[in-house]
Amino acid sequence: MKVGISYSWDDEAHQRWVATLASVLDAAGFAVELDTNVRLGSDLHYFMEGMVARSDRVLVICTPNYKSRVDARSGGAGFEGTLITAELVANHGTTKFVPLLRSGTWNDAIPCCLAGRKGLDLRNDNDFATRCEELIRDLSQHSATPVLSGKAAVTTAKRVDAVVDEVPRVLGPPYGASADPPVQEYPVARRQRGLQYRRHVLWATIAVLLTSLGAWAVYTYRSSADQPPAPVDTRYPLPPGATVAIRVVAEGSERPVAGASVFVHKAGEGVCGPLESNGDGVVYCSMLSGDYEIVVHYEGMASRRPVRVTRTGTIVTMKIARP
Where are the chain's structural domains? Predict the structure, then answer.
């Protein structure tokens, strides 16, 4: 079912409200005709003629400014008023045109051509969701294929609720906390919305994979690749089964750091860890001769360095900045 929207560009807040209403209707499954769907350089008068002719229902957003323009046949709203009047003259009993009161009163906001026609009061944004549901049900009942019917009603209602929940943010003051325009404008085409959704899913998947593969990279690593090769020391006798002692000290003071988490990797695979340094700042690990990478985490700081182990009893000193 095609639904057109006739309105006047009163101000930026009013345009955001109209775009939000169009988003709710689009989420409910209606094909919405709105002038923001027109490409740059297109003939707006031709679009307005087609919108009124093609639409099964036309929602007329009534404000004092809209009434004055339609009654005076001024601007785009005045041109649409001429088209509406012509259809009403040809078919006076039609229910195609639905007045929606946005501001002012019925007397000073509804154009003369629609006087006496039943409409819907949408001035109170606190009742926006309730009024939208009433409007959608009325439009659905007059559609050849009702939108809200059977199991589809549940899915449609959820989509509408999701859009309605965004109303305070989209409309901004005095209805929301921010005066910024909406991040995503009214979805002018289903295909475009589908492409946007697939792009979001793709980037979200990539972000999850990168986070999973490189979670350790969130720390601020201090590379110690320029440190001299690990010395051989016998100050820390190794317990049975251990071949390397790793000593964690504070950078600058050389004081032992207790409670640090130590990880040992080789060729991207874990060898030891997580190990917690003792009171002397020391942990022990069984490592064969070869190249390793040692990573230390302590209170949000981290340090890593490559190490080449060539003999049993190697003492590796890891320096880490104390926060």
Answer: 2-182, 187-213, 220-320
